[in-house]
Amino acid sequence: MYGLGRGVPRDEARAVQLFRRVCDGGELLGCSFLAQSYEHGVGVAKDEATAVQLYDRACSDGLANGCANLANLYGKGAGVAKDEEKAAKLSEKACEAGSALGCTNLGALYENGQGAAKDIGMQHNFYQRGCDAGDATGCDYLGDMYAFGHGVAKDKNRSAALYQKACKLGGAHACLKIGEYRTGQLLKVEYASYVGDNNKARYELTIQDGPDQFVADYRMNNFQHDRSKDLVAGKDVEYRIAGGTCL
What we know:
This protein is 50% helix and 15% strand. The protein is an alpha+beta fold. The chain has a four-stranded antiparallel sheet. A hairpin with a 4-residue loop joins strand 1 and strand 2. The relative contact order is 0.07.
């Protein structure tokens, strides 16, 4: 609540205090949230090494997304020595324990040959598992495979459906991609927050697409903040990817 400002004034430092309290009390989700705060420097000084320790604690005690987030840090070498093989093993552990994020991340490792040999079949399999479990990025990446015929037969309708699903799950990039196939009306634009180390501004876009209405995050970096004036509610817009901009 304090971290998002829901029902109370936004207070990220207070949120960190509460995450620490529940983590110290043995609540693994609190440890994971505290790790995210340290990883991104939200409400506390950025400290990726501490984030690694907290994710490791959560992962070791059975929190699947703790393993997935720990895998990301090993994959990047953030706060710990880079180890792509360990990242792959942790992603697999997370996926098998029910983390949609872990499945998607494992698919990306197979796609890029990081920590595992490139394998387009495994890539498809784990993107599908991530998407089925509700990860927007998994649906988005799977949509790309069908859009470009990467390891599967090209299927524009299938890719459009996957982008639509990803968009409804909050995947901003997928929301931009569905414009290749349709136009939506921008109903409302709300500035939400700065993200992480304050290098990105986050907006919430409410979009009407035929009978469906959904809200998606969209993030602009410092060089694009002035584009926010182009996010005008009440007009029909074709969504596309164009240099990371929205309209």
